[in-house]
Design brief:
alpha/beta, five-stranded parallel β-sheet, 23% strand
Length: 127
């Protein structure tokens, strides 16, 4: 089963995203507390991380850089989620694989996650 990790401080968004993704057949883990995020990300063994930019005491950009610079995690797709108008530039700076603009359309949300899950699946099969 494909795994998605949601790192988001708004519980309503976590709940909605979890419900949608579980309905699509994904295993979902989420974190709203970010102390020790490194262990949480390492332990999640996720195929895709949905990562909010503005977290309580943290910036998603830094968590993204941690994932992308970690040899064990760098193959994990990171999709930033934000209402920030500069999300595309921040995606490039952080090294994220994609982004979802808040508020998001549910069909677009599902399609973006599926695309990165399929991309990861294809990469693993060809390795």
């Amino acid at each position: 089963m494909k795994k998605v990790l949601i790192i988001e401080d708004e519980q309503d968004i976590v709940d909605i995203a979890t419900m949608i993704l579980e309905d699509e057949g994904y295993e979902v883990a989420s974190h709203c507390a970010f102390n020790g995020f490194e262990k949480k990300v390492n332990d999640a063994d996720a195929d895709v991380v949905l990562l909010d930019l503005n977290l309580d005491g943290y910036h998603g950009k830094d968590i993204c850089k941690y994932i992308k610079n970690n040899d064990q995690l760098k193959g994990t797709s990171v999709i930033l989620m934000s209402a920030n108008l500069d999300i595309e530039a921040i995606k490039e700076e952080a090294g994220a694989d994609g982004y979802i603009t808040k508020p998001f359309d549910l069909a677009d949300f599902i399609n973006i996650v599926k695309a990165f899950i399929n991309k990861r699946k294809l990469a693993v099969q060809t390795s």
